[in-house]
Amino acid sequence: MRISATRVVLPLAVLGLVLAGCTDEPRDGTPSPETGATTSSTSRVAPTTTPGSGGGSLAAFDSCGALEGVAARLNLTKIEDKGEQRCTAQNPDRILIGVTAWPTQGIAEARGAGQEEITDTTVASRKAKLVRKASSSTACMVSVEVTGDSRVDFVASAPASLDAACDAATELANAVEPTLPK
């Protein structure tokens, strides 16, 4: 079976846009590495459950650490640090997934790229938003509230199915939720 470059590259580009944050709102602060963090793929700071300094309780949250923590259970591969509290991976069904922490933006700011369908939901006992068609017809995002002013986005882009993307984003959100700051 031959796979066109468009079918492979387009979902990657779309996932990058979603993880970059599709909002017109300015972001406060200046990105900087957390103390003690490394950029190697073998040594990371684990996700924290205690408030950090500045940026709410997500200031020290490690998106890649969160993915690595559930990688075995969800069969994730190709975990990549994308910087600014963003990390991506791939599951066995070739669905691209990602985690992005937003220390200064709540779920009210969770948006897609214009054609999205947003519904209120919950993940465990947390408020959340399900954003179908977040950046394409096969991309889905689950934004989970950490505080009123912070959230974590769980994004998935499937090769051909919006439902598969939403299932993957929801499964990831439920797997990582217990590690989010309270």
Q: What would you note in describing this structure?
A:
InterPro entries: DUF3558. This is DUF3558 domain-containing protein. It comes from Saccharothrix syringae. Keywords: Signal. Residues 23-54 are annotated as: Disordered. This protein has 182 residues and is an alpha+beta fold. The protein has a domain at 55-179: 3-Layer(aba) Sandwich (Protein Transport Mog1p, Chain A). It has 3 helices and 7 strands; from the N terminus they run H-H-E-E-E-E-E-E-E-H. A 7-stranded antiparallel sheet has the order 1-2-3-7-6-5-4, with helices on both faces. The longest helix is centred in the N-terminal third of the chain and has 16 residues, at 5-20. It is globular. The N and C termini lie far apart (47 Å).
List the helices and strands and how they pair.
Layout: H1 5-20, H2 63-74, E1 77-83, E2 86-90, E3 96-102, E4 117-123, E5 126-132, E6 139-147, E7 150-157, H3 162-176
Antiparallel strand pairs: 1-2, 2-3, 3-7, 4-5, 5-6, 6-7
List keywords for this structure.
Protein Transport Mog1p, Chain A, DUF3558, alpha+beta, 182 residues, seven-stranded antiparallel sheet, 7 strands, 3 helices, disordered N terminus, globular, DUF3558 domain-containing protein, signal
